[in-house]
C-alpha cells in the first residue's frame, strides 16, 4: 500500500479467514510481489536513492526486515529490475531492462532460497521478454527482427532459441502468455493492439499454423488480454474497447472460437449511435503518414466551425490506443471533435515508429503533432482558432514543445505533470530515473551534440515573446517521476515572457499537496480534478452550450 502517492510501498500480509495481520515489516518496497510455493517467503523489490528499482529481496513472513536476504542486484544504472511469478506457479521470472537491452533469470519457487539461474543472457541492443511455459521457455525478442519474433528454448538450455514465428508486415510482437493448452500472443497490427491465439499440441509444442486472431471488426478496435490467472484454463479472457465502445470484458474458447461477452461497462444515458469514430491520416514534414483516431457527434459537419481537442504522448514506445473515456462525452455533446495523434516516439506503428521519435529524432514527435493539428483544421474538421491540446507526463513535454513550435495553432493546452524542464533533469544523474533515461533522450552531460539538440526543443528554454495558447498546468507535490519544480518554473517563465492577454488566455498552475504522478487519490477526487480541467477547456473553446 502507498498512502502518499510517492510509489514506495509497505507490504501487508493478511490472513483472509481470520483477518489477522501476519506481517507488515517490509517498508519502502518497489513494484512487484510474489509468494514462494510454500507461501512462507515473499519476494519484493527495492529502489535506490535515484528511485531506480535495482534489487530483488527475499523476506520470510513473520520475521524482521533486517533479516531479509538479497536475491539479485542490478548495478548498471541504465537498467531497472522487476519480476513476476509464472502462471503455473513454479518459477519466479526476473528481468532487468533498459530501453534497448534485457536480461532474464529464473528462480525455482519450490526452492525459495536457491540462486537465480540465467535465462537468455545480456547482449547490447537485444530486447526480449521471457515467459515460463511449463515445459519450456517462450521468448519474444528483436534479435535480427525489427518487428520482433517468437522463439522457444528448453528449460535446461535457455540460450538455445528456436524461432517459431516472426512478425509480419506492419506487425509488432509485444509479449506472450503461456497456458497448458495454448499461448496468447499480444501484438500490434495496422497500428492497433490485437491478440493471437496459438494452440498447443499434447506434447506442449505450439501449433503455429492453427493460430487465430481475436477480432471484432471495428475500425478502431483495441483488443488486449485481461487477467487470466489459471494455468489449465481453456478459454482466454480479453478486453475490447474503442473510442465508441465502453470497456468490454469477453471470453474466447480457444478450441472452438465461441465468444461470450461477460461484461460491458455501464455508461448511463449513453447512445453510441449518436457518434462516429474513424481513422484519419496527417502528412508529416518528411511525408510520413501520421495516424489519427477521431471521434465526433454524427451531426457535426467538416465545415470548419467545430471546436476540437487533440491528445498526444509520443515517448518510450508507449501506444495511446483508441479507447473509451466517459469524460469525453461532455465535450462531444457540446460539438467538440476529439482526436488522438499517434505521433512518432510512441509504439503505435512498430519499433521503427519509436526509433524515429527518440534521441536525435525527438523533434519528430512535436512536428508530427503540429501536422495532426494542421490536418484537423485544413480538412474542416476543426475551426481555426478553436483547437485545444492535452498531454501528460512525457506528453506534457510534447505540450510544451508544440506550444513553442506552433503557438498560433492552439487555443488552449492542458499539461498534466509535464516534463517541461527536461534538459535540467537529464543533466543531473542523481535525480530519479535520469541515467536510465539517457537511452531515451540521449546523454547531454557527456555528449555536446545531444546537449545542443535537447536545448533546441526543451520547453523551458524555448519560450518566445509571442501570443501563446491558454495553459492549464497541474502537478503533485509527491511526484517522484516529474518533480513539481519543473512545471512551476515553466509557468513562471511563461507568465513573464508571453505577449498574449493573460486575462483572456490565462496561464494556470495547480499543485496537489498530497498526491503523486497519478494525481489526487480517491475516485471522486480525481473526477473533481478532471471536471475542473474540462470545464476550463470548454470555456476557452467557447463550447459550453450543449448541442440541441
What does this structure look like?
The chain has 548 residues and is α+β, with helices and mostly antiparallel strands. Among the domains are: 1-126, 7 Propeller (Methylamine Dehydrogenase, Chain H); 268-384, Alpha/Beta hydrolase fold, catalytic domain (Rossmann fold, 3-Layer(aba) Sandwich), CATH 3.40.50.1820. 17% of the residues lie in helices and 32% in strands. The chain has nine helices and 32 strands. The strands form eight sheets. An eight-stranded mixed sheet has the order 23-24-26-25-27-28-29-30, sandwiched between helices. Strands 3-4-5-6 form a four-stranded antiparallel sheet, with no helix packed on it. Helix 3 (363-378) packs across helix 4. It is globular, with a radius of gyration of 24 Å. The mean pLDDT is 94.
Amino acid at each position: 500500500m502507498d498512502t502518499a502517492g510517492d510509489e514506495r510501498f509497505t507490504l501487508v500480509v493478511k490472513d483472509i479467514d481470520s483477518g489477522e495481520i501476519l506481517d507488515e515489516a517490509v517498508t519502502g518496497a518497489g513494484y512487484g510481489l510474489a509468494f514462494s510455493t510454500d507461501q512462507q517467503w515473499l519476494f519484493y523489490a527495492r529502489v535506490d536513492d535515484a528511485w531506480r528499482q535495482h534489487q530483488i529481496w527475499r523476506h520470510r513472513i513473520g520475521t524482521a526486515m533486517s533479516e531479509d536476504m538479497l536475491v539479485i542486484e542490478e548495478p548498471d544504472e541504465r537498467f531497472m529490475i522487476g519480476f513476476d511469478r509464472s502462471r503455473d506457479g513454479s518459477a519466479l521470472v526476473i528481468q532487468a531492462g533498459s530501453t534497448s537491452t534485457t536480461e532474464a533469470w529464473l528462480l525455482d519457487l519450490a526452492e525459495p532460497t536457491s540462486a537465480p539461474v540465467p535465462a537468455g543472457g545480456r547482449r547490447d541492443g537485444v530486447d526480449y521478454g521471457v515467459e515460463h511455459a511449463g515445459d519450456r521457455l517462450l521468448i519474444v525478442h528483436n534479435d535480427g527482427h525489427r518487428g520482433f519474433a517468437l522463439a522457444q528454448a528448453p528449460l535446461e538450455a535457455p540460450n538455445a532459441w528456436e524461432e517459431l514465428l516472426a512478425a509480419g508486415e506492419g506487425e509488432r510482437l509485444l509479449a506472450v502468455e503461456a497456458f497448458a493448452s495454448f499461448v496468447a500472443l499480444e501484438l500490434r497490427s495496422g497500428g492497433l493492439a490485437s491478440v493471437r491465439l496459438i494452440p498447443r499440441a499434447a506434447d506442449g509444442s505450439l501449433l503455429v499454423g492453427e493460430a487465430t486472431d481475436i477480432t471484432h471488426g471495428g475500425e478502431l478496435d483495441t483488443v488486449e488480454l485481461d487477467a487470466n490467472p489459471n494455468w489449465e484454463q481453456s478459454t482466454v479472457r480479453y478486453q475490447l474497447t474503442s473510442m465508441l465502445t465502453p470497456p468490454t470484458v469477453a471470453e474466447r474458447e480457444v478450441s472452438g472460437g465461441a465468444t461470450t461477452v461477460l461484461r460491458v461497462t455501464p455508461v448511463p444515458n449513453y447512445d453510441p449511435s449518436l457518434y462516429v469514430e474513424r481513422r484519419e491520416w496527417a502528412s508529416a514534414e518528411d511525408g510520413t503518414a501520421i495516424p489519427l483516431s477521431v471521434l465526433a457527434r454524427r451531426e457535426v459537419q467538416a465545415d470548419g466551425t467545430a471546436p476540437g481537442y487533440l491528445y498526444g504522448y509520443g515517448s518510450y514506445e508507449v501506444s495511446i490506443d483508441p479507447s473509451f473515456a466517459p469524460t469525453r462525452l461532455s465535450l462531444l455533446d457540446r460539438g467538440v471533435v476529439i482526436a488522438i495523434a499517434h505521433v512518432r516516439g510512441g509504439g503505435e506503428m512498430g519499433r521503427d515508429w519509436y526509433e524515429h521519435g527518440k534521441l536525435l529524432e525527438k523533434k519528430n514527435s512535436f512536428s508530427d503533432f503540429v501536422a495532426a493539428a494542421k490536418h484537423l483544421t485544413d480538412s474542416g474538421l476543426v475551426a481555426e482558432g478553436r483547437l485545444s491540446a492535452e498531454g501528460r507526463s512525457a506528453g506534457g513535454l510534447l505540450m510544451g514543445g508544440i506550444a513553442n513550435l506552433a503557438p498560433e495553432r492552439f487555443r488552449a493546452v492542458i499539461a498534466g505533470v509535464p516534463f517541461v524542464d527536461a534538459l535540467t533533469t537529464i543533466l543531473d544523474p542523481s535525480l530519479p530515473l535520469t541515467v536510465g533515461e539517457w537511452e531515451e533522450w540521449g546523454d547531454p552531460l557527456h555528449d555536446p551534440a545531444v546537449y545542443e539538440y535537447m536545448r533546441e526543443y526543451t520547453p523551458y528554454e524555448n519560450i518566445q515573446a509571442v501570443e501563446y495558447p491558454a495553459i492549464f498546468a497541474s502537478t503533485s507535490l509527491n511526484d517522484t517521476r516529474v518533480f513539481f519544480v519543473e512545471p512551476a518554473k515553466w509557468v513562471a517563465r511563461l507568465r513573464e515572457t508571453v505577449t498574449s492577454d493573460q486575462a483572456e488566455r490565462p496561464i494556470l498552475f495547480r499543485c496537489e499537496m498530497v498526491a503523486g504522478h497519478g494525481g489526487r487519490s480517491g475516485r471522486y477526487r480525481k473526477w473533481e480534478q478532471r471536471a475542473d480541467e474540462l470545464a476550463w477547456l470548454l470555456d476557452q473553446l467557447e463550447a459550453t452550450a450543449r448541442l440541441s
